[in-house]
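Box 3.1 A note on notation
Throughout this textbook, protein chains are presented in two layers. The first layer is the amino acid sequence; the second is a token string describing backbone geometry. Keep the layers aligned when reading.
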Amino acid sequence: MPAMSRLRPRIIGRAVQRERDQVSKANNETRGWKVVAGSGFGIAFGSAVFVTSSFGLLGAAASSQLGWAQADVAKAASLFLTLQMLTFPVVGWVLDKFGSRRVATASIALFSSGLAILSQSFGALWHFYFAFLFIGLVSGGTNVIAYVRAITHWFERRRGLALGCAAAFQSVGLLLVPALFATLLDAIGLGAAVLALAALEALFVLPIVALLVRDGPDQRADGTSGALGEATIAEDATKPAGAAAWRTPTFWKIACTLFVMGASFYGVIANVGFILEKSAGLTLRQIAQVQMIFGAGVLIGRAFFGYMLDKASAATVGISSIILAVMFFVGYGVGGSSLLISCAAFLGGMSIGGESDLGPYLAGRYFGVQNVSKVFGWFLSSFFLGGAVGTFSFAMMQSAYGIATPLFGLAALQIVPIFLLLRLASYPRSPVRS
């Protein structure tokens, strides 16, 4: 009996501890998905979404009201993209040093300042260019790269799903931001509309990101061990980091894969109006409807392929998304009926959703949690560099050979990323599956 009396408090103590652990796990689950929601909100109103979705409206308004040539206005977008591509590796290094929350909030504040400068820049073209140079220089941390580190710290087993859900908010922004900006343009004019977006960033986006985004828990949101505990640090120590990552075949296989994906995606998207007008005879209104279908595909593709990254190998997921991209290119190349074009657009959106999930996921799996932002910054630069090359190359090809030939050529080119993905080694340590 005395022995039983001594044992009973231990049993009760263990039961209480298990109950506390379950409560802690449930709390971390809620907090982790709050981080995903905050990250997604920041991504939806990031600088890349603003330029991708609203620069056409901004440029058209500036050209119409100020008499600026369209080609001159377009140079501002090129300046922005170039600065973003060059600064992503630096942003990644800063993120790994200071964390997602501090870098994202600082970058949002600077992006808001850049928009305020832009609102006053319509007196001269060089003012306009300076504003976009400034925005491109300081706003890299408003985009997906800023939140990868925080989400990676919060999730292990469901990391792909969490990254996919956060990135899917970009599609929401692509639908909301241009609609909001167009409404503001009609209501209050060009300069005031841009200033209103600056206020939105400072008064709405910044507080939400600051409130919801946290860099890491004691226990991950899916119940695995602490974000940067001894096990994680020991595991990261076995993975190449910094300059050592450059010397690995895996780094270059992934970088080249993303380069081809970026070239293929931007080659089509940057010329999509011309493609659909010539290959399918669509009007501008019909092209806008097709782009909405494409956006819906991106939204679904990011969440679906993000989930699949937690269940299957990266090669399987990547190749699946590439197959959808091939169907997308061929569908646009064949042209013809609106139904075929719509189906191709949806598949294309799903494909880029899957391809966009690969970079941050593979950066963490192959090069470690502590280096994920730095490595992903280089991967993102590779993707953007491919986009710059692909846009120019596709335009040159279509001028020489028409619409169908470069589209079928892009479909054939996808054998390169498929081959590279098949040559990837296993993860340095197999992730926990759920």
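The two ends are 43 Å apart (CA to CA). The first helix runs from residue 2 to 44.
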